[in-house]
């Protein structure tokens, strides 16, 4: 690089020393832009000011004064004044690294070369035949790499630079043992004024030093002020802004919107700018409008484009950075930068974090404050910290990330502890349990690394900062992911809810990551707010999902690989739950699961082995069936004259129930609600016509029933049972689906009660999908509770026991409350908490509800509500109105037993659910636990399976009445109903065509809690039981709508336990043969407008074409009376009632 000529005589200054240098230092006004780039890219930044070396190494430190004297004597009048002009940047390529520098133009280089040789000659050194003046700004490793080319581009953005040189600077290294930071800085020793030939006193500022060790880890712990910028509308340029004169708190806000967006920098040279327009469109979209916008991965190629957009400049006139292509501003310091845009004036500081290029932008908004209702005064100015933590799921990456989080939180606590603070950005914290498990299995993540990740999660959810996504999710809800409602449980993993980086949906993310664990959704992007912020988060949404753009390779992708996030903060929002509700709600406390219960994957395998998780084929067929149903109902499949000239009907089909919520099984029916603009009567006539025409496509209409909320069609589509209901609500249809995200009390829902009743399943479902904090955890927990309830004989809503809605109401508050804890809660933790919480529940006085939804609920619980499980939307809140005191006691007893099992050392789910492949573990317990049962026999010999199902369904729905009667009239007994139909032996093919005989069983036990001693009052109890069974039979047989003695028979008797010990559950022979018969009730005249009717009937009238009964099938009332009396005597003791007394004479009260 240099060659020497001249005299060979030795100089008195001897060998040069690297502890001194003679150089030119540019004016300090040029330092900020240069040093911003050098701070993160020049390893010598902490030791040297910006400079151009004239002689380095220079003289020995002890000879600096002598050298200065000689320089003062040199005649340099023909060289000075010297004008330095820099128009370009370049790089020196070395073996192991490259030096990037600002390059003086040729004229400057010639003048500097002459100056160098004058100095060398004066010192008695050889002159140089060549000299390359340069101002170093950074280093790179590979001159062919994209990183090198990006850095060189940054250096060129500093040009042009120019100044007049008036001084020569002699720098001497600080080698004292007590140097402040041990960096051995080059400090200014002498400054020579060339014109006056004197030594002048000059002090160089100690610039913001962001030093790094040999591992590129930052050693700095303080933040450094940086210039902010304001858009000048008169000049259309961004100018440095000084906010020191602003009046503190002059802008008191009652609302604030903060948004964050990782715009994804380009990493290949030359950069593809085709996404820029789409990125700006996303930022200007309605869903992204904000007061303060925090951007990550901003580059020199994107920021000029952004800050030249008129709409952006109008919305956000203040910024932490100016456009790099403005010469006086210069490049961004890093390849990936954090930029904060704002409607309000700001000042900011750069906080170095663990790694060289990782730091936080901490912005203060002097004029922004809020009214603090708790203190009655205004808050201190708002602080917003933008962050982009280190990525990676290795021990080293997590260790760095933990330090970064800690440094930022510590800085905010120490420097802004009394100010309201918001942290926004890309946290890069892996949340998907699948990705974490895969990383551990591959060896990339150790046990210590997993603990470090857990520590980071805990740090981000501590009491000082609140995650606004979670705060709004569990209350108002977040609707960005509602479309995920039907995803199969086997495809779900913990920690993927609220994902902002989702390669499964985001085309650009999918393109970048390929496959493997990196393809799982992650909630990387977050907004946190401190407890000092008087405002509360009330709404949250994502943006950037809709717009696609074509990039250089021709593919259509999303503008960024991340979704943007946004939060609305407001004041005067009730942050907690109304005290009146808290008095009736039992606080939820975490019960940690035993390690023996396993993790999320163990739960899924447990469910899979028991048939509770559907297959991919099950999911595909259901989606195909739903699509087919929708197509047929809308008439999209029609062609020809029938379709011509007809106005399309306004309809939308909404899968609700278990399928809509994603907790369905392969045996589950699909419940669908159709919302439209036509009347109910017109809809069902049209629907029946179109569905029948589509019979050749796998659709069969099974029957039409009149449910509590109106007419319902039972269908079979591609072999799957469907229940189809309709709601006439034109205003809801026109604004669907957005209307489903409106608050429950919104004016859009000022509708008739009957309409609200029909809409309730859809409204509840949409709220749950957008408010449950982790749907994967909820769904697996739900299905395991359902499997447990089935195995223990307490699942069956029609019997007054648990149903899907009841499990949901019980489980959702557990999921939401545990999500607020400052620690990671697993699905097994949720389950053990569920059983422990409700095992200690006072069902008589306490209420189960979602306190994050019901904040000002006025609900009067009546004495006829032994089970108070409040749902969400009106009109009917208590979802357990069919429950009775006996069923509640049965449920409570089973929960208590299971909680005891789970609390034992080594507890397993097999112990709770029973062996795989066995029948419900509770069936044999039920049959063997009671010495006597009430047996409700049901026989049917008609030709129509549908009529048989109607009869059995009607009888089933009335079984609960016996429990209520026993509880009221025979309180000494504690009845337990098994929610299923029994038969004496499995049905064979030969018996399938014969008379159907089944029965229901109610176990009878003495009530240990009854007053007066049950066993001492057997006569009264026996009399009461006999009377209520007779009354039950009378009521059933006298109901001509459902009971036809010509085709069916029923009786209620008491039997010994041994008489039914060999009974087995009915697999549902009649339930599966409807499709083989064409017995649909086709009386269209019975249709009526459901909006004008309300009915408590569960089924429609039975068919009337059944065959006459044979003499052997006729009911013999005398025989039944004798049979009942004999069995009651057997249970309660003989001789209590005379054997010849009639039923009427022995009737109990």
UniProtKB/TrEMBL annotation:
It is found in: Nucleus. One of its GO terms (cellular component) is nucleus. Its main location: nucleus. It comes from the Eukaryota. Residues 1077-1119 are annotated as: Disordered. GO terms for biological process: mRNA processing; RNA 3'-end processing. Residues 778-859 form the Poly(A) polymerase central domain. Residues 1079-1109 have a biased composition (Acidic residues). One of its GO terms (molecular function) is poly(A) RNA polymerase activity. The keyword Nucleus applies. Residues 259-538 form the Endonuclease/exonuclease/phosphatase domain. It is an enzyme of class 2 (transferase). Its EC number is 2.7.7.19. PANTHER family: POLY A POLYMERASE, POLYNUCLEOTIDE ADENYLYLTRANSFERASE. This is polynucleotide adenylyltransferase. It comes from Cordyceps confragosa.
């Amino acid at each position: 690089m240099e060659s020497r000529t001249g005299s060979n005589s030795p100089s008195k200054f001897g060998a040069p020393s690297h502890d001194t240098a003679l150089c030119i230092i540019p004016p300090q006004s040029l330092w900020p832009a240069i040093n911003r780039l050098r701070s993160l890219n020049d390893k010598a930044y902490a030791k040297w000011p910006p400079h151009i070396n004239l002689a380095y190494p220079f003289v020995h430190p002890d000879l600096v004064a002598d050298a200065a004297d000689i320089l003062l004597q040199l005649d340099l009048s023909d060289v000075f004044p010297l004008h330095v002009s820099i128009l370009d940047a370049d790089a020196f390529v070395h073996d192991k690294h490259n030096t990037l520098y600002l390059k003086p133009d040729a004229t400057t280089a010639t003048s500097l070369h002459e100056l160098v040789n004058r100095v060398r000659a004066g010192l008695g050194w050889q002159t140089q035949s060549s000299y390359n003046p340069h101002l170093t700004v950074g280093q790179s490793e590979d001159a062919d790499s994209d990183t090198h080319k990006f850095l060189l581009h940054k250096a060129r953005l500093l040009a042009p630079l120019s100044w007049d040189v008036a001084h020569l600077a002699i720098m001497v290294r600080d080698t004292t043992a007590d140097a402040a930071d041990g960096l051995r800085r080059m400090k200014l020793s002498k400054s020579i004024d060339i014109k006056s030939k004197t030594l002048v006193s000059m002090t160089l500022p100690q610039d913001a030093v962001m030093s790094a060790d040999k591992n590129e880890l930052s050693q700095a712990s303080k933040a450094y002020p940086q210039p902010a910028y304001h858009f000048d509308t008169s000049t259309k340029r961004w100018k440095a802004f000084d906010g020191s004169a602003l009046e503190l708190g002059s802008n008191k806000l009652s609302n604030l919107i903060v948004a964050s967006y990782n715009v994804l920098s380009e990493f290949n040279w030359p950069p593809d700018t085709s996404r820029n327009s789409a990125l700006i469109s996303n930022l200007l979209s309605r869903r992204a409008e904000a007061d303060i916008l925090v951007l990550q991965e901003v580059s020199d190629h994107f920021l000029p484009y952004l800050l030249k957009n008129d709409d952006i400049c109008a919305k956000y006139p203040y910024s932490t950075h100016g456009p790099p292509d403005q010469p006086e501003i210069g490049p961004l310091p890093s390849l990936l930068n954090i930029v904060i845009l704002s409607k309000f004036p700001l000042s900011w500081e750069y906080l170095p974090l663990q790694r060289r290029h990782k730091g936080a932008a901490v912005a203060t908004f002097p004029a922004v404050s809020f009214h603090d209702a708790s203190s009655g005064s205004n808050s201190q100015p708002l602080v917003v910290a933008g962050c982009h933590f280190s990525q990676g799921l290795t021990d080293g990456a997590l260790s760095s990330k933990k330090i970064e989080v800690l440094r930022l939180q510590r800085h905010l606590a120490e420097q802004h502890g009394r100010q309201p603070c918001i942290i926004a950005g890309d946290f890069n914290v892996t949340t998907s349990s699948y990705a974490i498990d895969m990383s551990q299995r591959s060896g990339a993540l150790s046990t210590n690394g997993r603990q470090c990740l857990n520590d980071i999660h805990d740090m981000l959810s501590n009491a000082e900062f609140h995650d606004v996504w979670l705060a709004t999710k569990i209350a108002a809800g977040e609707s960005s992911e509602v479309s995920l409602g039907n995803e199969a449980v086997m495809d779900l993993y913990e920690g993927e809810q609220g994902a902002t980086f989702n390669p499964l949906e985001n085309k650009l993310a999918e393109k970048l990551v390929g496959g493997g664990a990196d393809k799982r959704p992650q909630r990387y992007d977050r907004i946190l707010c401190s407890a000092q912020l008087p405002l509360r988060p009330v709404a949250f949404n994502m943006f950037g999902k809709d717009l696609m753009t074509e990039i250089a390779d021709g593919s259509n992708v999303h503008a960024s690989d991340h979704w943007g996030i946004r939060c609305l903060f407001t004041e005067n929002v009730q942050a907690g739950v109304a005290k009146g509700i808290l008095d009736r709600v039992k606080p939820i406390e975490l019960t940690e699961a035993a390690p023996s219960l396993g993790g999320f994957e163990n739960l899924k395998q447990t469910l899979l082995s028991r048939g509770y998780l559907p297959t991919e084929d099950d999911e595909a067929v259901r989606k195909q069936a739903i699509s087919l149903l929708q197509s047929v109902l809308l008439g999209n499949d029609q062609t020809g004259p029938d379709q011509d000239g007809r106005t399309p009907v306004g309809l939308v089909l909404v899968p609700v129930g278990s399928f809509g919520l994603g907790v369905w099984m392969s045996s589950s029916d699909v419940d669908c609600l159709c919302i439209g603009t036509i009347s109910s009567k017109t809809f069902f006539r049209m629907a029946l016509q179109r569905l029948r025409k589509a019979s050749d496509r796998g659709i069969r209409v099974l029957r039409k029933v009149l449910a509590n909320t109106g007419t319902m069609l039972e269908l079979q589509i591609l072999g799957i049972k469907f229940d189809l209901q309709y709601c006439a609500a034109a205003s809801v249809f026109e604004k669907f689906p957005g209307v489903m995200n409106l608050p429950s009390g919104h004016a859009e829902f000022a509708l008739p009660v009957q309409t609200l009743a029909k809409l309730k399943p859809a409204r509840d479902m949409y709220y749950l999908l957008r408010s449950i904090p982790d749907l994967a955890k909820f769904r697996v927990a739900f299905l395991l509770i359902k499997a447990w309830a089935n195995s223990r004989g307490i699942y069956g809503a029609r019997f007054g026991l648990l149903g899907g809605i009841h499990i949901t109401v019980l489980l959702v508050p557990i999921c939401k409350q545990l999500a607020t804890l400052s620690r990671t809660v697993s699905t097994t933790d949720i389950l053990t908490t569920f059983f422990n919480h409700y095992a200690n529940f006072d069902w008589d006085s306490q209420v189960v509800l979602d306190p994050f939804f019901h904040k000002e609920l006025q609900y009067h619980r009546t004495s006829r509500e032994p089970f108070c499980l409040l749902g969400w939307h009106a009109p009917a809140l208590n979802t357990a109105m069919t429950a009775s005191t006996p069923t509640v006691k049965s449920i409570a007893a089973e929960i208590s037993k299971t909680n005891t099992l789970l609390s034992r050392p080594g507890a397993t789910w097999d112990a709770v659910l029973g062996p795989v492949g066995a029948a419900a573990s509770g069936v044999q317990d039920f049959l063997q636990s009671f010495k006597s049962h009430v047996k409700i026999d049901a026989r049917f010999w008609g030709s129509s399976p549908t009529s048989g199902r109607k009869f059995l369904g009607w009888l089933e729905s009335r079984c609960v009445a016996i429990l209520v009667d026993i509880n009221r009239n025979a309180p000494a007994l504690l009845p337990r109903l098994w929610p299923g139909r029994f038969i004496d032996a499995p049905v064979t093919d030969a018996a399938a065509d014969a008379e159907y005989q089944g029965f229901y069983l109610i176990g009878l036990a003495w009530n240990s809690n009854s007053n007066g001693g049950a066993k001492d009052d057997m006569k009264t109890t026996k009399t009461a039981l006999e009377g209520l069974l007779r009354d039950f039979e009378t009521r059933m047989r006298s109901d001509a709508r459902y009971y036809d003695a010509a085709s069916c028979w029923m009786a209620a008797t008491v039997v010994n336990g041994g008489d039914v010990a060999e009974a087995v559950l009915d697999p549902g022979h009649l339930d599966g043969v409807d499709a083989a018969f064409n017995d649909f009730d086709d009386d269209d005249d019975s249709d009526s407008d459901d909006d004008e009717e309300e009915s408590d009937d569960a089924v429609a009238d039975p068919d009337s074409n059944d065959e006459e009964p044979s003499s052997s099938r006729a009911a013999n009332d005398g025989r039944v009376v004798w049979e009942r009396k004999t069995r009651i005597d057997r249970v309660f003791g003989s001789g209590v009632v005379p054997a010849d007394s009639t039923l009427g004479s022995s009737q109990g009260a």
